[in-house]
Fold each of these.
Amino acid sequence: MTHTGPAARQPGSPAPLGATVEPGSVNFALYSKQATGVELLLFDAPTAPVPAAVHRLDPRINRTGPYWHLRLPGLGHGQVYGWRVDGPRDPAAGLFYDGEKLLLDPYARAVTGQDVYDRRAAATPGSNVDRALRSVVVDPDRFDWEGDRPLPRPAREVVYELHVRGFTAGAGSGVDETLRGTYAGLAARAGYLRDLGITAVELMPVHEFDPQDGPPGLSNVWGYSPLAWSAPHAAYSSDRSPAGPVDEFRGMVRTLHAAGIRVILDVVYNHTAEGGPDGPVLSWRGLENTAYYLLKSDRSQYADYTGCGNTINSNHPVVSRLILDSLRWWVRHLHVDGFRFDLASVHARGEDGTPLEKPPVLWAIGTDPELAGAALIAEAWDAAGLYQVSDFPGGRFAVWNGRYRDDVRRFWRGDEGMIENLMARIVGSPDLLRGEEASPSHSVNFATCHDGFCLRDLVSYDRKHNEANGEGNRDGTDENHSWNCGIEGPTDDPVVAALRARQARNFLTLTMLAHGTPMLLAGDEFGHTRAGNNNPWCQDNELNHLDWSAAAQDAGLLRFTRLLVAFTGSLRILQEDRYWAATNPDRKGDISWHGVQRGRPDWSPRSRTLAFTLEHPSGTELVHVMTNAGPQGLDFELPAPPDGEPWLQVIDTSRPSPADIREPGAAPPVTSTVVRVAPHSVLVLVCRPAAR
């Protein structure tokens, strides 16, 4: 690298923030309103123990208002740098300046130095320059996209949530050993994802996070401990050059797009890795603590609505601009197709923690023209009890439908009083999503996600088993609404194993048939287990690493899932993003409800049955679904299909593979007007009359 001397320095510009590559130079700009001194440090290598050059900024020349800036000729893409910022240290006033700490640029596009990073050095007195993470200058135009663009949203999104490292870290992943657990490794499995039939991957956090922010002897594996909101996590890259992770991430996106798969990021803008007041000084805390974080009346303490020690002050103008700029960066320069906002209800809180009717940052995201084509999904709650699934602000946001998860789990467990709730979930939860712009696609329906039991464990455990996390099994939710089918954990009992397989198929079937945006958890399609751990956030092992070996996979379940996704993808009525009308005597509708008797759903508290018929307005497609969550088989009356066309039996979850779901064109006709639905099972029939 070439380092310019003082004579070549230029004042620079306060905009844009971050490190911006210009012809022959780099402009550095930083927000720090109460700083009294700022230094820019340049490094020759990611792990260099000392800087090659230190540029102290002159406030008379290099400061405009609260912004510090400097332009240095001769620098460019790949330059490693960091900031030191001095100022008053007055915890009672919420000020934690520490001029000895090397700070990450909040606008960093890449982060390096992981091989020498020590979190403890950033939390104890003294310099940490030799053990700190460093920012990297990135030229966004140094990549050949080969014509790639973000993909348009399909008629019906099918989301597949996965962990980048866990997806291919296992030895049986089928990718080269050097690529396991990386962006390139994920790209190598694009064909598998395409064949599964999903339309989007939702990646658990891939922005640079702090693995050292975990329990003693364990690491923060899931990534909900952010360090830099615009930098791809370097450990997920096989290219460990300073800017290499950016290009490898973009290569992954390009490959997934070529396979027809959109990329949605799980983004964590609600807290940071700096933790509570005793945590490390890594970036935001050492730059402008009172702007970036929500503080209590005792300004030395952080408001904690996230359960992670601090809460981002996302409706502060400077912070909301940083969040918007980060989102635009991912879309504009990394071609990301959408975002899932972790603990999104935090962004609805004002500086005193009170929920705002129109939170500025959420409305800014929802109305930003650069984000107009991006999927926006909210985890519409936070750790302090704010639950906004029914009224999340911002207009455009879809929501993770936690009510769908809970109601469907309770129905299949056999809980009383679930029929009306189940009906609402099947039709896209219009009882919850009441905004003017609400539509069925805004309900992200899932039975499992990264947080809580995976599918195999949902049907195998009544209780969580999180002892390996080192917190005395206190972590993770206690409300799993699960059923172990008679035995806790692994079993050789063939009756219990068959019932568990049936229940797994039930969850998948209803999730794919319910109106809205279905979401699957990676590994559920072939029976991955976490051994009953419902919160393995700190387990970098087989609990999170998918086992792709034939011995570990349920090939029948994988076949079932692939055919189920394809079947539901062929149903026109599921592709139309409108709420269904119910059939009544005066007009034809989209859905009619039944019980074991045609046209007579059983709404009694003890009911365990529900049936419904979907009919596309064209009259060329009918689907009849019968569910029986009870312990005895029951006879269901069938509605008469039009024109004497037969019903064809596509799915019977009570039957083992391959009879559980039929290949296209191989579904047998149903000749009776009454069919038996086995206990704990779903039966799905289809009729496709000729156009009339």
Note: The radius of gyration is 27 Å.
Amino acid sequence: MSFRRRTYPEIMENVLTGLTGGISAENHAYPPSSSGQKLFEHALEHPPVAAIVSVYGVRNNLTYQFVKGSDYDLKNNKLVWLEKGNTPDAGSNFLVNYRRAGASSGLNDLHVGSVLRTLAESFSVELAGLYAQAEAVYESGFVDTARHRSLENVVALLGLSRIKAGRNTTKIKFTRSPGSAGDIHIPAGTRVGNLDASIQFATIESISLLSGQSSVQVDGRDIANNLQGLPADSLVILTKPLAGIQSVTNPSPSTVLERDESDSELRTRSKNFLHGSEKATLGAIKNAIAQQNVSAEVRENDPAPGFITVSVHSNTLTPETEARLKASIRDVRPAGIEVNVVQAAAPLAVDMVLRITTADDLLEADLRAIQEQAVNDIRDYLNNVDIGEIISINRIIGLVLSESAILDVRILSAMVGTDNVLNREQGIVDMTSLSGITPEVKVAITAGVINIIDPALATLLTARILFPSGSAAPSEAAIKAALAKAIVTINDLNTGELPGSPSPEMVRRRQLNYGKLLSVIPLPGKAAVGDYSSVAALADTELPTSAAAGEYQVQFLITSESGTSYILDSEASPTVSLIPFERLTVAGIELKAQAGVTS
């Protein structure tokens, strides 16, 4: 059913045409069902026709009066639409007022001010008013056109009500992924949450991240009546990922919205509710899980028909999060289906080492920014891989190479604990042969340590020496010169990749530990090794210990530009294996005398 409001001029023309013996409001469908012509024709039902008085219909969903000679013409008792004229909307009806040839009427006093004219005008005004009221009633039944209280009554059928003043609101910032192109549409109702999904906000309106634009901000509102304030940078999780969006946050703390929800906002929210109100399906259950920012595997007919098992892979599943998860699943599960939520193995961390080659003549600040971006891209990819999904090496390489300043990249290793999961032949990170896990078990993963090596950006080596205030201070210049000389040899030993089956001695030459570094620095009462190559391949038992430093406490700090740091302060400290082509440089020597320090 459709309704079109008739205005006073249209009604008045209908009345006057009828009073003078003409045909008023003759109804025709556009286009005619039996017409096969390019220019549509409509045979008028009461020929012969002397003239068409007016034609009213719908154009662009609005009442429109078509113009004779521009939009239509009369030919052979037919209304013919002209080629370049305006036409009614397809599928609508239009009304024609016309005069028949030879028709007459006893009512002919239609001059302004006459009794007949006054009665016709009064009738038309009242009927136009009734049409206006009918239009308001008609529009009040639809989400798109209802307003105020009528809109509230319509959305009440969905269980929704207008949000009153007092809700938290904040600006939500969406940032584009590097390498993504084109406009990115962010629909109203897009949900973002904090890390455990206990607080969620939804965008109030739709917005687009335009091509070439790196970020955009839009208003968001708390979906629950949470009267507590929200600090800045709390909303960092998209409950449902958006293609082309790398990150989300709220740059500023939340504030209290001091107005009720507007008609436009309520209308948008109700439409989003309809779009997302799918229930009683497997997709609805998965969506409910995603909204809680929980990684889980959903299995149908497990252990029998009528049962669904949700295996939650999380090492931070609090009782509160578990309660919210079960409640959200209950809201959407099919009737008669039992859903069991079980705790599965926590996500496994994948540690990766990559080597990149960057363009020449880049500043150190630019190189660091490039590395940081590459690490973030890899983390985002790994953290959003679905359970059981294949992890593509080419996808990771493509993410890194999306930065034009990176000329080449090679994945050197991918490890889960002590398991090597890098499968170059298949081009994947293979999670099917992990120690202690059967191949048929699906595992969840998370990004572990992502270490990126760029020969253009050296790894930093810092020496810190603490000694008693009454003892002789070591020579900073001598220590720095000794380490710089040793680093030349270390870098030379690390200029290529190891063979497929390296000998233990080859491996030890590329390893750094406390004993090797301690042996090359001079301290009062302790001689230094002049040639690092003489200690590079020694076993741990052949190297000096912290006792060789006497009353001096020596610590070495190794920091890569991708953020990985190691502290070597005794023979018990871990060994650091240098990555092929990784370069070292002396960052500084720190000497500090302190009372009470003893060996």
Note: The longest helix spans residues 115-139.
Amino acid sequence: MKLYPRSDRRAAGILVAGVAALTAIALAGCTSAVSGGAGPISTPVRGGQIVVAQPGDFQPNVILGGRTGNYPWIGNVFQPLTYIDPESGTPEPVLAKDWTFADDGMSVTFTLQDDVTFHTGRPMTADDVKFSFMKTTEADSGSQVGFIAKQFSSIDVASPTSLTVTFSQRLSEATIFDFLEQTYIVDQETYAGLADGSQVVGTGPYKWGTYRPGTSITLERFDGYWNAAAGGQYADTIEIDKLADSTAQLSALRSNGANIAYNLGLTDAKGFESQPQYTTIDAGGTIYPFGMDVTKAPFDNPKVRQAIAYAIDRDRINDQVFAGGGTVTDLFWGADAPGVTDDQVNHYAYDPEKAKQLVEEAGATGAEVPITVVALPAIQSEYEIIANNLTAIGLAPTAVSVDETTFNSLQNQANLGPAFLLLHSQVGLGPSTLISSLPSLRANNPSHFDSPEYQDLRNNLTSAASDEENEKALGALTEYILEQAWVVPIVQAPYKVVSSTDVQGIGVSKRGNLLLNDAYISE
């Protein structure tokens, strides 16, 4: 398995303090990548253009936020301090070449690569790293992990290549590396240009070229790349085209108008799995839960919430909506997360009779259940199945359809109504991060669920100082979430990347970003 371009692993063999603790990270829905698909791997060829078709829009204004529309290009223009290997769970150096956690777990010191330059030619320094970290705390950055930086009590720059981050409370190493994974280092001198895409300046092997908002981006090989001596940068240019219609993506791929289709619908992607001229890759993914506002009847009664958990036919949803390509689970994290039991993974097996009995015991038979549904095909298809499931147990569901912008606004305001179908593109983050980054689980969640016990269990996980403490804390928190059932995970579905086998050397990060430094078009 290839995590990201091997040519960017400059500090191979570095002994990093605290890495051992990372081997126990939960890698829910971890990504994979291939180096050439079904055919034999050829000698890398320099030149040409790689074309990627994607459905989402480009959002250079939220470089520090996890936006699916940025995943195909962002990791080629920008770089973080570290990436996490999806297979081993260990952090690998990128812009940082070394790091050391203090014995008390209250700080970490980074040593940076000493010859990194931005695409403007200006040297990157520890001040840029500090700037990037602090920007994540601002609401308009869109960062899903800015809450972690808010727990940095100080960032002290000792030299252009060294800085120490001190925490206001103990943070697990897993949480820190989740933060680093999706915090790209930006150029503070041109940061304002990200707002309209006029200046998009990173440190990666490709630089921002022609930008046609809502249409395409062309990335160009950066000749001043700091790690060029390690190899890679085979393609002259990388073109990212927005093709919102799945039919257009398929047509582009089959006609060689595109070499790679990113986030292709699971049903469409499945059709390529048996075709030897294509390779299908899992990349990151989305968690799809059903949420309920516990302050509104009938969801103020936990029996009704548990009834819905038993009533939803997850296997049918996975098969019909996600072409069987997702993972059916009752959890927000992976089944292999240390401390999680098999009983917890499948706690709410499909049992409509039990669900109907719980609804009757709660006196909720016939209760109206308005469900807020965002106008996305997968969510609307989910709703049709869930509506039938809830009707079968004596409830009366109705859809309240809203557009994507309205839905995001309502979610941020924690005002989605009595019930709602959610989607969280955060597969790949660890549990200690997810409990605060996921709208479903964070303090101001749209279910309005909170309790002293929940806060204690969350704190126990984030402050765990050993593998044993982490396992115990995660097991207890998982059990509590299942028991209270204010939000019901349904399936975790990966993004699908379909590539022509003419393109080899594709890399994918744990979060699902395409990394094309080593990608080339074979002869």
Note: The chain has a mean pLDDT of 89.
Amino acid sequence: MTMSGNPENRTRVQRIEEVRMGLILAFCLCFLFFIVEFFIYQILHGRIHHDLDQNRTQEVSAMGERIHDIFLRIEVYLVHASNLYSVRQLLKGEDPAMRSAVERFFLKIVEAKVSHFAPTFGQVRLLNLNGMEILRVDLDPDNRARVRPRGQLQDKADRYYVRESMALSENQIYMSPMDLNVEHGRVELPHKPMIRFAIPVFESHGKRVGLLVFNYLAQQILRDLSVFVHKEDQWILLNEDGYYLYGPNPDKNFGFMFPEKKAGFFSDYPDFWELLSTSRGQKFDRPEGIYYRKTINPFGVDAMMTVSNNHFWTFLMFVPKKNIHRQDILLVQGLLMAGVIIVPILFLLGWFLGKARVKNKWYLASLEASATRDGLTGLLNHRAAMDQLEYQMNVAKRYGHSLSLAYIDLDNLKTINDTLGHRKGDQMILLAAESIIKSIRNTDIAARIGGDEFIVILPGLVREGTREVISRIEDSYARGSQSVFQRELTLSWGVSLWEGISDTMESFINRADKEMYKMKKEKKSSGNIHLP
């Protein structure tokens, strides 16, 4: 039968097929049940228990993937924030413009909790090398992100996570254990499960200037995990030492935070905890029921950075024996209904999971773009540009291709910012970025690597071809600036050619940089740089 393009026809055909399949399956099951009742019972009994194992195992794995996904997003936030120019500048010295930019960025991070797929942060801090907060954004009890006044900033130098994080090198991040938030030496009430992530901030030449600390509200993990678990089942989350992070008795949760408790799963079930510690099994059939175990390594092997002290958790899903026996009873009652119920459930489950997976994919793609693109111009940022330059140098080395680099600096940006305001300065930067994009080839790579500094990587071109490209950029920039500033603006530039396998990235860039500064110096000495 050919399905009609009419939506009503498609719906009608689909309903007919669903009803027909449901009726056929129900009829077959009823027929088989009444003919060979015991035989059917034995087969479906084994299948139900097999499906029980499989479904619980998949659910436990889905929980691990959910946590892993959240932590990778946290890593993206950390890496992106630590590479922000405004963050580095604020750590080097007080600057109202840099402080304002960092405050806006931190507020956006904390306010991202409104998205179902975004990590929820309770605090975002920027600390100097002495462990003193120089900027802090909190999530208040009314669920609003607020910048704390400077008088409320605290010295965190004595906190364990600050001491350990300060010793990290580049490409390392710190993850604390999941514990309860402590304010002024006391556990905060109501309890706030917290994981602290930190990353040192370095200047481009490798000098350490400060520390970023994100306080992740781990209640999000506990809430999300509970959604996956059936109401009749129980679930337990343990840290690596066997303490409850979440368990059937709330009074025992986070026992390591309270000296008077010091109780955990290891003391409640010492023999079982020893078995869990020595066995790699995922399923444990005990007299009281079945336990399904998942060891959760939050970052896994996909992390971009090295996690200095990556903690792991043990997740246990407990299915009591009475629930398993109930399945046997329901089997007898539901043999005739199985085909009618299971098919639509699987259909709906697949539809919802597929939708969630697609949303997750696009969300991660968006985060990846934000980590590699300049927020104002949309061009590649400094880190991404260096990665691209390294790649193009390797291509040129392998195939013997030509490669050139243009270093471009805008004339008078500081003067325009000081006299006309930063909005005009931003217009000037955007105009330059648009001129570059319009003037280069599809194979060329443009990036903004500083406030008014751009580079263009030009594979396959030598000096003459590179100068032709820059000439087009200058012409486009001059024409565009005429309408915005009523005067033609200029830019200074320098060009360097890749000199072969002995050439390094640093020397390659420095030659273009020196040539650019030489041009700028000549312009200044000749009086060719004027304020618009």
Note: Confidence is low (pLDDT under 50) at residues 1-7, 29-33, 338-359.
